[in-house]
Amino acid sequence: MQLADLKWTEVAALNRDTPVVFPVAALEQHGRHMPVFTDSMLTNELVRRADAALGDRILFAPLMWLGNSHHHMDFPGTLSAEPRVYLDLLNGLMDNFIAHGFKRLVFINGHGGNDIPGRQAVFETRQKYRDRHDLLLLFATYWNLGAEPWKHDPSIQQRVMGHACEWETSMVLRLRPELVGELARTDDVPFGNAFEPATRGWTMPDRSEPGHVGDPRSATADKGEVLFGCFTTQIVKLLGRVIEWDGKSWEG
């Protein structure tokens, strides 16, 4: 169920236990071979598939394409919200729908740079409404929901999300192959070990001169369909848990 298609009277008539999903992504560089709208394209497709599976049990807001992408600002074409501005945008979206009476709010994220501010935003909003014990506020990045696509297609080499990598490149090949550049001209940019398990502050030029991380050369459209299927399944499972939540329990 798409918020953008509804009249305000139709929204007003919804059960306030209907989960509201805010898809969030980015517009930023994706190496020399991929379009800047990659994250938003992929997240939109995953949301489209989840919407088709769940129907009127979930309300999907339009995708917010502006993300926290300051670490990509060395590459032209990147657009980024200031980190504090981005936090306030996410908090504001939750405030809006809490004001409308909705209680189950979920961010489905498709850009790694949104992950830390997204988790901070749901923390901040929960503190703001600390006397409300009927609220469920979640932030989920789609590739961190437990999918193991290599078990469905053993030719998939990657095990974690990179950037303009085998996974993302395969999914864009599935959606818009004409937007993908010549993969034979790309190289493998290793993930490396950035002082793990510590978290390092970084910009993309610290890691990659061309702007991608991983090896896109093995990407195929067929792998893209497998990846879409695996990630959609995990999103639908999560949202099913949100639908079934009893409105008070810690676990769901």
Q: How many strands in all?
A: 4
| Broad CATH class | Alpha Beta
Structural class call reads: alpha/beta
* Uncertain ranges: none
So, CATH architecture?
A: 3-Layer(aba) Sandwich
State the order of secondary-structure elements, H for helix, E for strand.
Answer: HEHEHEHEHHH
CATH topology call: Rossmann fold
The CATH superfamily turns out to be Creatininase
- How large is the share of residues in beta strands? 5-15%
Radius of gyration, whole Å: 18 Å
Tell me, rounded to a whole number, the average pLDDT.
97
Describe the main β-sheet briefly: 4 strands, parallel
Our measurement of the CA-to-CA distance between the termini, rounded to an integer number of angstroms, reads 23 Å
Global shape: globular
Helix content: 25-40%
**Number of individual domains:** 1
Q: Going across the biggest sheet, name each strand in turn.
A: 2-1-3-4
Helical run tally: 7
